């Protein structure tokens, strides 16, 4: 109902020589025009015995005639014969879905564009936006790339929807077969990286990563994540670091959402997402020079001759990250500090001798007190170090508290999700047990009271 107001469904099934054929109508137009306060889905069912050739209906006769008349009035078909022809096209097994009365946008045009490409179905608004925003010189490579076209082209989206197709399976769009496109086959400088999920009962998966063949001209990057051979999500990281890096993997160990457009936001998926981001940047740091970019050198490997010269008359300051300085510089700093310490001790010694000569009456001040005076600076430094250690311990304790709170909240979320799932199961079970007041089972025309408001809210 997101695509159109009305839909009619045809289905056939053959089992042990008995062919069952069913037709169902879900019409928003019918419910609004007749001002129904509940959702009504008329259905008709046929049964054919292929061995004897007998033909019959499974509905009550009066109920069958009522539902058939609704279908003929509110569907594109005007006779029962036309409905049966649709079932004959399906054959013994299959389903046909026809959506009509498609929605219009605010401009009064169809949301789906059937004229832009006679072999494709596109989203009209997205096509106009792409054409308006794209410069002519940049459009050919970027806008025609699969990563951008799949957002509005049904044919391009279907071409990468599955990694592999069975031999007896074909997707036909507007009379033309959709060709399968595996993005992993187009990568330059591909690498295969094994990822082990953070769960002991899950096997490792192989991730294919590399540069797209149009790189660096095309600014496309990210991962196509598949679940059981079907594309679920395209993850991208909007940074220049990683431009042109594309990856493909099958992640059967995480659960997709009900609409197959995303994954459940669990801790397992979050860890996978973080690893893919790191994987992208690691590949870029090691391979970006293959596309002509300058390889970034880690700080720990900066050559000695590239360090700035020491200004005259100034000492080299002590650095917290000592590994960034050459060994000779560290030795020079150490010798300078020891020399300053000795000069300070000599100064204290000279002061001591002066005090002994000029103030002989103060001889009572023993050597221990003098040593204490000479070492007061060291004691002050020690007290500062002890204070920093205590502060560090307190911060570490607070971090542990936050981690524990985070774990408790995570377990609470899991518990609430479990309760929601149980409530859904119980709700579905209660729906299946609903009967009429006289105790007879529900007829094929299903009635769900108080559901029209929900449908209207969804459509709005």
Tell me about this structure:
- About 11% of the residues have low confidence.
- Helices cover 40% and strands 20% of the residues.
- It contains twelve helices and 16 strands.
- The chain is of the alpha+beta class and 460 residues long.
- The strands form five sheets. It has a five-stranded antiparallel β-sheet. The protein has a five-stranded mixed β-sheet with strand order 11-12-15-13-14, with helices on one face. It has a two-stranded antiparallel sheet with strand order 3-16.
- Strand 7 and strand 8 form a beta hairpin.
- The longest helix has 57 residues.
- Among the domains are: 154 residues, no CATH class; 109 residues, no CATH class.
- It holds the Pfam family Morc6_S5.
- Keywords: Coiled coil, DNA damage, DNA repair.
- InterPro entries: MORC_ATPase, Morc_S5.
- This is Morc S5 domain-containing protein.
């Amino acid at each position: 109902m997101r695509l159109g107001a009305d839909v009619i469904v045809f289905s056939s099934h053959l089992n042990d020589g008995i062919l069952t054929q069913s037709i169902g109508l879900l019409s928003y137009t019918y419910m609004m025009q007749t001002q129904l306060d509940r959702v009504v889905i008329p259905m008709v069912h046929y049964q054919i015995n292929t061995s004897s050739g007998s033909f019959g209906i499974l509905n009550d006769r009066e109920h069958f005639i009522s539902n058939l008349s609704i279908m003929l009035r509110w569907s594109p078909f005007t006779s029962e014969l036309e409905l049966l022809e649709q079932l004959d096209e399906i054959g013994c097994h299959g389903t046909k879905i026809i959506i009509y009365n498609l929605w219009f946008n605010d401009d009064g045009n169809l949301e789906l564009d059937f004229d832009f490409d006679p072999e494709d179905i596109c989203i009209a608004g997205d096509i106009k936006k792409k054409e308006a925003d794209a410069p002519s010189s940049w459009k050919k490579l970027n806008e025609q790339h699969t990563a951008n076209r799949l957002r509005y082209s049904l044919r391009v989206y279907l071409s990468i929807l599955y990694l592999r197709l069975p031999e007896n399976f074909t997707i036909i769009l507007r009379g033309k077969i959709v060709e399968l496109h595996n993005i992993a086959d187009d990568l330059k400088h591909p690498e295969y990286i094994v990822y082990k999920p953070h769960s002991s009962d899950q096997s490792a998966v192989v991730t294919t990563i590399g540069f797209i063949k149009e790189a660096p001209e095309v600014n496309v990057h990210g991962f196509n994540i598949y679940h059981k051979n079907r594309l679920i999500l395209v993850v991208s990281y909007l940074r220049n670091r990683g431009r042109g890096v594309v990856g493909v993997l099958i992640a059967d160990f995480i659960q997709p959402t009900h609409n197959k457009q995303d994954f459940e936001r669990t801790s397992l998926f979050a860890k996978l997402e973080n690893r893919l981001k790191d994987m992208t940047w690691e590949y870029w740091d090691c391979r970006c020079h293959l596309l002509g970019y300058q390889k970034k050198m880690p700080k720990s490997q900066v050559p000695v001759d590239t360090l700035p010269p020491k200004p005259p008359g100034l000492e080299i300051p002590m650095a917290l990250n000592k590994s960034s300085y050459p060994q000779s510089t560290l030795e020079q700093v150490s010798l300078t500090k020891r020399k300053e310490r000795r000069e300070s001790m000599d100064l204290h010694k000279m002061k001591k001798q002066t005090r002994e000569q000029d103030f002989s009456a103060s001889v009572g001040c023993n050597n221990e007190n003098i040593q204490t005076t000479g070492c007061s600076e060291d004691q002050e430094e020690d007290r500062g170090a002890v204070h920093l250690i205590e502060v560090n311990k307190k911060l570490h304790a607070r971090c542990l508290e936050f981690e524990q709170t985070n774990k408790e909240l995570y377990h609470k979320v899991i518990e609430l999700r479990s309760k929601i799932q149980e409530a859904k199961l119980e709700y579905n079970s209660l729906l299946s047990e609903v009967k009429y007041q006289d105790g007879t089972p529900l007829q094929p025309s299903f009635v769900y009271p108080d559901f029209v408001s929900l449908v209207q809210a969804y459509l709005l």
